[in-house]
Amino acid sequence: MQSNTIGRAARLLSVSAGSARRRADAGRVATHRDESGRRVIDGKPLAAFSPEITRSGDGVSRTPVRDASPGNVTAIGPGDLAAQATAQAGPHRLVPLLTREAVVEPGPEVAIRATARVKSTGAHIDRT
Domain holding 110: CATH number? Predict the structure, then answer.
């Protein structure tokens, strides 16, 4: 499972590192220390926390989505022919419709870091 430092988590959530630290200190997202002693947030708790911070709007940057926005995958909804992979990129939630094959190995997984790309009327989620 991918872990994110407080700074990286803050960038993914589009908040300051201090704001991310305060949320972790308040118990809103679980952290632990890695082998280097750095405070980190595992991918799944961060993915679960991403929509909450966006709904609250607390400290979230209101920059528009441009070509690429770093974030993480928060949900995968495979179907028979089509699937959805939800990505949270700062305050932006992207839900592109994909083919079922696109979410099968080695497709996106919940809690991985990803880059959401929006071009014209299409949206893509790239594993990063």
Answer: 2.40.50
Rg (CA), the chain: 15
Residue 121 lies in a domain: yes
In the chain, the percentage of residues whose pLDDT exceeds 90 is 11
Cis previous bond, 106, omega within 30: yes
**Residue 63, Cα to own-chain centre: how many angstroms?**
16
Q: Which residue has the tokens 């709904």?
A: 55
Count the domains in the chain. 2
CA separation, residue 91 to residues 10, 83, 106 (Å): 12, 23, 27
- Residue 5, pLDDT > 70, answer yes
Going by pLDDT thresholds of 50, 70 and 90, the confidence category of residue 46 is confident
pLDDT, tens digit, 9 for 90 and up, residues 61-76? 444 445 677 888 888 8
SS3 for 83? strand
Return d(Cα 81, Cα 90) in angstroms, integer.
29
Enter the pTM of the model.
0.50
Residue 111 and residue 73 in one domain = yes
